[in-house]
């Protein structure tokens, strides 16, 4: 898949035979079942958000959280569930079926942290676990923080109220 | 009705992510980063004392707070909140103010998991 993406930019430098081969490989590439993947992502993502909504209601009703603050314990519980499922290798099995449905919710963020931590455990607790935990999830934080900073600067310059 | 909207909106954001992966040919990491940036921008659009994402959360509940877009939203939220309180330095000091729960929980649980569990699958 990534090869097909790259081949576009490399086409100019390749010979005719290489191009011919690439076209042949492309035409024989199995088409992605986009509709099926989307349906699965919708169902899995919907169920995770449904679970989140149930937790939010639970925290609002029984633990005295307000509508605004109930999001924090909800996210923490979802992350805990995701980490436990990752430890038992279950999350990755679900993810194989659900694709984006398990990657997009915050549980996918926790899964990427946890699986990186487990994978590099053998390299030691500091260099392995500590150093590699954000290997996959780091980009999310870097881009999120940078985008938030830019938005903040724009608000500052424009002097927007809020 | 809250549950129905949480399911539909949450599912729809996941479909958007899936489309970025399948049709946009992005890697999952690129997709997550894109969604976080979208969430951060959506919180920067303000009118009437509320951001676009705030209205979205009011409407969709967990359907808007559980997907990763809400991470970007809360980063911007903290930055803007402190910006209005403390001036320009607030942009830097406020960014992690609201997000702390998600990031801390993910780090702590993952670290504890790495102490006791072995990789599988």
Automatic annotation (TrEMBL), chain B:
<feature type="transmembrane region" description="Helical">
    <location>
        <begin position="6"/>
        <end position="24"/>
    </location>
</feature>
<feature type="transmembrane region" description="Helical">
    <location>
        <begin position="31"/>
        <end position="49"/>
    </location>
</feature>
<dbReference type="InterPro" id="IPR005562">
    <property type="entry name" value="SpoVA"/>
</dbReference>
<dbReference type="Pfam" id="PF03862">
    <property type="entry name" value="SpoVAC_SpoVAEB"/>
</dbReference>
<keyword id="KW-0472">Membrane</keyword>
<keyword id="KW-1133">Transmembrane helix</keyword>
<protein>
    <submittedName>
        <fullName>Stage V sporulation protein AEB</fullName>
    </submittedName>
</protein>
<dbReference type="InterPro" id="IPR014204">
    <property type="entry name" value="Spore_V_AE"/>
</dbReference>
<feature type="transmembrane region" description="Helical">
    <location>
        <begin position="88"/>
        <end position="117"/>
    </location>
</feature>
<keyword id="KW-0812">Transmembrane</keyword>
